[in-house]
Amino acid sequence: MSAPWAPIKVGVIDVERCPEGIGGAPDDTALWALVREHRRPRGMIKLPFQAGRIGTGELARAIAELPPAATAPPLVARPGVRLPPVSVVIPSMLERVDGIRACLDSVAALDYPDFEVIVVDNRRAGSAPVELEGARVVREPRPGISAARNRGLAAADGEIVAFTDDDVIVDPEWLLAIALRFAREPELAAVMGLVVPRELETPAQIWFEQSGSGLDRSFEPLTFERSGRFGLLRLAGQSGDRSVQSLYATGELGLGSNMAFRASVLRARSGFDEALGAGTPTHGGEDLAMLMELLTAGHRVAYEPAAIVHHTHRRTFAQLERQIKGYGIGFTAMLTAIAVRDPQHLLGLALVIPAWLRSLRDPHSAKHEHRDAGYPRTLARAELRGMLTGPFAYARSRRAQRRWSR
């Protein structure tokens, strides 16, 4: 890959403790920073380094141009507000020892009074048992992240079950932001959070940010509920805007690396579809399938940007290409799964697929707007190839799950 690129320094700036200038490493050409005020995200700034530094004035001007912080209650547990016990579930193949250790260290530093940590060892049967400081380890030999999450759900004692992955670092207020949102809105079934990159040091990591495969980041609290047969009502907490979009416009709903559910609701739905997700032929889609199922059943789902995790993107192009193809497989496998479970989705999908296919080819669509001239076209082709095979991958995965259950 010969497209020009340069490392970008990633950071978080709290307005109340804004530094007097920021320096970068010798190779860093820009700063990419999440700006928070009163611990709530305001937005992101990207500034070039001049002689390896960004001055106080430049930072102040960039921050001033951002919208004000979301109008929402402070991230403080006030007297009389009950914070429910939470189970943090982390599925892992235990392949990234440094990653799981860093993740657990960040979880141990959470600002929350009552939580447990469950790591689900998803390696094959016969693997040597492990112990991890700060976590209860349970085994799930059936392959796939959905089987691992369901095992964690079965072992969980908390009223809320929060899921994350072993390649993230959680923010100290992650659980507090999730629990306060559940406490304020008792009708919520799920709360999803903000995912930002932990580093942007390689071309692959930067291209992932441009791919449109991540979360459509919003910095104000959102609530979603079903509207009509195939519509989704989007309620913006800060602006008060109400809009209806397609039920299948999933970009803002959230990602599996940062999601929490009321345990009772998740158990009532029998957990995640074990034919979907990483570690199965479908590679993904289990998170969106669950959200779709909840919304279709009449539940409300929230997005809370103050619940932040920092994700380590794949570092090499080969890893990224496999990941993007996997996302394509997972997306159409997820659509197949929800249609199999509830055939009314076939009509809803028939109404939106033509416009969706046009958007894949439109260089001005939201999917393409962040891609620069150096973005590899092979990634877009890999995603499309994956989409074409997703329904067949779901069928294979269902057969494999039936074999496991015998």
CATH class of the largest domain: Alpha Beta
Percent of residues in β-strands: 15-25%
> Can you tell me the CATH superfamily of the largest domain?
Spore Coat Polysaccharide Biosynthesis Protein SpsA, Chain A
Low-confidence stretches: none
Number of strands: 16
Helix content: 25-40%
SS summary, helix count: 10
Task: Tell the overall outline.
Answer: globular
Order of secondary-structure elements = EEEEEHEHEEHEEHEHEEEEHHEHHH
CATH topology call of the largest domain: Spore Coat Polysaccharide Biosynthesis Protein SpsA, Chain A
Mean pLDDT across all residues, rounded? 91
Main beta sheet, described? 11 strands, mixed
Radius of gyration: 21 Å
Describe the structure in brief.
The protein is α/β, with parallel strands linked by helices and 406 residues long.
